[in-house]
Amino acid sequence: MAEQGSVVSQQNLDRSCWVCFATDEDDRTAEWVRPCRCRGSTKWVHQACLQRWVDEKQRGNSTARVACPQCNAEYLIVFPKLGELCFLNYKTRPHQIRRRP
């Protein structure tokens, strides 16, 4: 079992982003994802690179479908919930900020 864990760890160390081609060594702080059923060298991508790539493919149409260019799995795009709307009046002081539900 320990040998299998080291193989998985080694595979994670050999990650390469299929969008920008950077590796773990190039950016140790980047967030990595596996968004589809790809395997091998195309399974890993930076979260930020994937978001930028999807934006480019959608060309401003947030309802446009986008699929992995390698395995053709359709990406399910989930938008975050919008938070409370906050109106700021530039003449008010910070303690006078009015919030609207």
Task: Report what the structure shows.
This protein is α+β, with helices and mostly antiparallel strands and 101 residues long. It has one domain (2-100): Herpes Virus-1, CATH 3.30.40. Helix content is 24%, strand content 10%.
Gist of the model:
This protein has helices at about 1-15, 45-60; strands at about 30-35, 45, 85, 100. It is an alpha+beta fold and about 100 residues long.
What does the secondary structure layout of this molecule look like, with pairings?
Blueprint: H1 2-13, E1 32-33, E2 45-46, H2 47-58, E3 85-87, E4 98-100
Antiparallel strand pairs: 1-2, 3-4
List keywords for this structure.
single chain, 101 residues, alpha+beta, Herpes Virus-1, two-stranded antiparallel sheet, two-stranded antiparallel ribbon, 10% strand
Which percent bin holds the helix content?
10-25%
Please report the first level of CATH classification, the CATH class: Alpha Beta
The shape is: globular
Give the mean pLDDT: 78
* Domain count: 1
